Amino acid sequence: MNNIYAQGAVVSVIGLCTVFLVLAILWGVLELMRVFFTAPKKQTKPAKAQSAPAPAAPAPAPVAVADDGELIAVLTAAIAASLNRPASSLNIRSYRKVGTAAPAWNQVARRDNLIG
Amino acid sequence: MLNLLIEGITSFIQSTGIAKIFAATAETPLAFAGVDFGTIIMLAISCVLIYLAIGKEFEPLLLLPIAFGMLLSNLPLANVMHNVLFVGSGEEHFVMDFGKILHEGGLLDLLYLGVKLGIYPSLIFIGIGAMTDFSPLIANPKSLLLGAAAQLGVFLAFFGALFLGFNIYEAMSIGIIGGADGPTAILVTKTLAPKLLPAIAVAAYSYMALIPIIQPPIMKALTTKKERSVKMGQLRPVSKLERLVFPIIVTIVVALIVPDAVPLVGCLMLGNLFKESGVTERLSKTVQNELINIVTIFLGVTVGATASADTFLQKETLFIIVLGLVAFCMSTAGGILFGKLMYVLTGGKVNPLIGSAGVSAVPMAARVAQTVGREEDPTNFLLMHAMGPNVAGVIGSAVAAGVFLAMAKVL
Questions:
Q1: Residue A54: its pLDDT value, please?
Q2: Do B367 and A30 touch (CB under 8 A)?
Q3: Domain count, chain B
Q4: ipTM over 0.90
Q5: CB B97 within 8 A of CB B84
Q6: Contact B400 A4 (CB under 8 A)
Q7: pLDDT (tens digit, 9 = 90+) per residue, B102-155?
Q8: Which domain holds residue B269?
Q9: Which pLDDT score, from 0 to 100, does residue B99 have?
Q10: Of A34, B51, B84, B351, most Cβ neighbours within 10 A?
Q11: Is residue A93 within 8 Å of A59, Cβ to Cβ?
């Protein structure tokens, strides 16, 4: 009877140690990857033109605004509802369609207003 | 003429399921006064599960097929599933006869072969891989350790199951519920303890649905207000090259140490490579949608169908439900406590709440960490930080499963 508990203890210890070992090795590998792949070269990222005055708005980003009065009205209403602010306080200067290629979970998060 | 008619009606009535329910023999499980209560209870449980899936939206994509599969296989005389073909009828060393299954099996028997051969869980992992963004993990590799710590519940529940009298293989299958990963739990159970498959699948998926209820009290009990309010710095941007190399390296490292985890981790990383490569968008979309959906239907219905009265209506099922809850709670606590350790070691830069996301239920556990963090400070955004341990938990539970499968061979 005690034998099974001894076996259990062995399996638990080996199991937990192996899980930690594998993930710790991966940690080390990822740190190495960071050193090799993101070498000191300074990335001068193109300044992201998040020019919209509504900072937390889900989508605003650059694209020339044509005569899209109706679309702008819809976007303004959506942002106003999302931010709980009067539409008159918003001024949409540009917008950009966010591709649907984003991972499904990001899309869910975006829909639930968790990430921008 | 009249006699013929009465005879016809009588034999028709005798061929109905209702007659079968009221003609239970001594061998029928849970039979009382000639009534087959086992079947009646199983049909009732199926209906309750269907209600939970539709009415309460408990993991409906899986629970609904599981519950309906359970309903189908317990309908008297419908004969859509024959468990005896897969687990035998009590023999010591039962060997599955594939020829017999192909000749005598019904629709669900044939579909169940995908579970029995371990095909469905791996295919589902390809889809999960294609849906997973490992960038938060690559940007903050320390979170891998949180994913490991959150496997604590797996091993504690394993030990608990041994104490409750399960054999070592059954205990392993029960413990893996704590990994909060349905396909992994199914893969381990179908190999080590096929009779427990329905109970373990139902427990695993039910608790995954209940994560937003189970985790927050534990998270709050184990952390202080100050710890919960920690704001973590912005994650560094991750280059495309890193995201491409990551799945390849993980596959190689895991395969070299725990070869038994390869079917899961390999498929997870294959799916991720489809997504990250940028040149296989069609494949990526297919595995994220069509493939995973089709396989989920097959997996859910057939796993549910294995729940017959004689295997499901046992005290072991209750033990499994309780141990599953213990496993979930302990895994959450393990992640949080390790998060607290990291909080101390980093001088307060890590919010311990993200540790709870180390149980792999993606992305629900990460969202719970985000929600609890936001309750303390509405301007605190932990989601992306919690996604690191969350996806690490997927790898961690697959490795734990691999260890169990490997150890089972030598014990």
A1: 46
A2: no
A3: 1
A4: no
A5: no
A6: no
A7: 998 888 999 999 998 989 999 999 999 999 999 999 999 999 999 999 999 999
A8: 114-410
A9: 92
A10: B351
A11: no
